[in-house]
Specification:
Shape: globular
Number of helices: 13
Distance between the termini: 36 Å
């Protein structure tokens, strides 16, 4: 009886959490240009519009390019820092780790205003590449955390054995450590990619309307009314996010990345 009750409660909670996206998914397949729910008729034309309409397509491409570029840059920043902290354990280096955590800890509006002031000071406001750098700095915390977990999971005896055999630090990193932390590199990239894809405040503050990502496109489109295309974009975002995290769960150690540190003492 208790097991059935737990299953019922879990099912109700799952239904409650999924209800908003179910409503949005229903709205996205309306046959007419309306936000009716339950949907009146069935049509996938609004999903096709994301790829056929020039405005939506350009925003989608811009979002993917910005997200991929900023995620790669965030990993490039986080990797040497995480490697240094793990390899040499310098106490003062923890200050740099905390510095890497700061952008993500601060409220997004404060961080966005900081980026706005910085790029305006150097007369670079509105340059498309500034949003890539800003997102990389903003989300560097994610690959930094995952990589720190990955390095912490490496058995130091492997490094000591390689060093005893005459391998220098570069060789040890390339041949011993890198294969072990590669899933954490990919996971850090994926986390930063997904959040950059959905981020609006920093992108809007840094580039305004000179570069229209999908979140900015959605808010701009709201000025002209509501269409099922916005709901279709939302569903695509959710599906892409689910796909990314599904791949992490399949090929990585998702429970550990989410903080479940399993130890076999």
């Amino acid at each position: 009886m208790a097991r059935r009750l737990n299953a019922l409660v879990a099912g109700l909670i799952a239904l409650l959490l999924s209800a908003p996206i179910l409503v949005v998914a229903g709205v996205s397949v309306n046959a007419k240009r309306s936000l009716d729910f339950p949907p009146k008729g069935f049509s996938l034309a609004w999903y096709a519009e994301v790829f056929t309409d020039a405005g939506w397509r350009d925003a989608l491409v811009a979002s993917l390019v910005v997200a991929a570029s900023s995620a790669a840059l965030a990993v490039a920043i986080a990797f040497p820092l995480a490697w240094f902290l793990w390899r040499w354990r310098a106490p003062w280096a923890r200050a740099f780790e905390m510095l890497g955590m700061t952008p993500f800890i601060l409220p997004p509006v404060i961080t966005a205003l900081g980026f706005l002031s910085f790029w305006t000071t150097f007369d670079q406001y509105g340059a498309p590449w500034t949003v890539v750098v800003s997102h990389a700095v903003f989300f560097v915390t994610l690959p930094l955390v995952t990589l720190s977990m990955g390095f912490a999971a490496v058995d130091r005896s492997y490094v000591e054995a390689a060093s005893t055999m005459g391998a220098d630090d570069r060789t040890v990193l390339r041949t011993v450590v890198m294969p072990l932390v590669r899933p954490y590199v990919i996971s850090g990239f994926a986390f930063a990619f997904v959040l950059s894809l959905n981020e609006y405040i920093v992108a809007y503050m840094v580039v305004g309307f000179t570069l229209e990502t999908l979140p900015i496109k959605i808010f701009n489109a709201l000025r002209y009314g509501y269409t099922p295309t916005m709901a279709a974009v939302t569903v695509l975002f959710v599906l892409l996010t689910g796909l990314v995290f599904g791949l992490i769960a399949r090929f990585g150690d998702l429970p550990r990345l989410l903080g479940a540190w399993a130890r076999n003492d």
